[in-house]
Amino acid sequence: MAGGLALGGYTAWLVWGTSPQPSRPEQARIARVERDLTRSTPSPESSTDANAVMRIPALGTHWAYPVYNGTTTEQLEKGLGHYTGTVGPGQIGNYAVAGHRSSNSGFEPFADLPDRVKPGDQVIVAAPTGRYTYTVTSTQQTTPDAVQVLHPDQGRGANPRDRLITLTTCTPRYGSTGRFIVYGRLTSSRTPK
């Protein structure tokens, strides 16, 4: 009986005790990262290795996470990961980003991605080169080996001369037998003055 209670408690913590919304300290850290990224001259105390900050309003008012170069465990445990070999934000081609939907540490920024992000929603990326707004065009479930979603045409024949975005996460939430993919296209941008 005690084992069942412990398992039930752990399961409840996984479902309700972890949150894709950044905590207040994380929100403050992300605000500092974004300020440093968008300044023409970074502050001397800046030590971020993030290259952008992503916001997805459909995931919540305070949902914002830094994007780091690479998709190693270290990078995905503190933010989102920009796939090596794909273009940067706002560039022609496919800007591809990964994030946890569930993790042992409880850090799971994309937990609600499949349930709440739909075509027409926005993905906003603030980077040193500008602020880019992408509009979600479609979503898809694939197998973990479907790496063609990272290609310039997103593996689905999209125009590789467009400015595209692809977001990936594992599915189901507490497993990794599949991948949930969000596709989008740049619809507006604002460059620094």
What's the end-to-end separation, in Å?
A: 64 Å
- Tell me the series of helices and strands, N- to C-terminal: HHEEHEEHEEEE
According to CATH, what is the class? Mainly Beta
By helix and strand content, what is the structural category?
Answer: alpha+beta
Content of β-strand? 25-35%
CATH architecture assignment name: Beta Barrel
Domain module tally: 1
| Uncertain segments | 5-19, 41-47
Provide the CATH topology.
Answer: Sortase, Chain: A
Instruction: Give the fraction of residues assigned to helices.
Output: 10-25%
CATH superfamily: Sortase
Mean pLDDT over all positions: 82
**What is the tally of beta strands?**
8
Strand order of the largest sheet: 1-2-3-4-7-8-6-5
Our count of helices gives 4
* Shape assignment: globular
Largest sheet entry: 8 strands, mixed, barrel
Radius of gyration: 17 Å
Please outline what is shown here:
The chain has 193 residues and is an alpha+beta fold. The chain has helices at 2-17, 24-38, 73-76, 113-116; strands at residues 50-55, 64-69, 80-82, 93-98, 122-127, 130-142, 163-171, 178-190. It has a single domain (21-190), classed as Sortase, Chain: A.
Write the layout of secondary structure elements.
Elements: H1 2-17, H2 24-38, E1 50-55, E2 64-69, H3 73-76, E3 80-82, E4 93-98, H4 113-116, E5 122-127, E6 130-142, E7 163-171, E8 178-190
Parallel strand pairs: 2-3, 4-7
Antiparallel strand pairs: 1-2, 1-5, 3-4, 5-6, 6-8, 7-8
What can you tell me about this protein's structure?
With 193 residues, the chain is of the alpha+beta class. It has a single domain, classed as Sortase (Sortase, Chain: A). 20% of the residues lie in helices and 32% in strands. The chain is built from four helices and eight strands; from the N terminus they run H-H-E-E-H-E-E-H-E-E-E-E. It has an eight-stranded mixed β-barrel. Helix 3 (73-76) links the parallel strand 2 and strand 3 (80-82). The relative contact order is 0.15. The model is unreliable at 5-19 and 41-47 (pLDDT under 50).
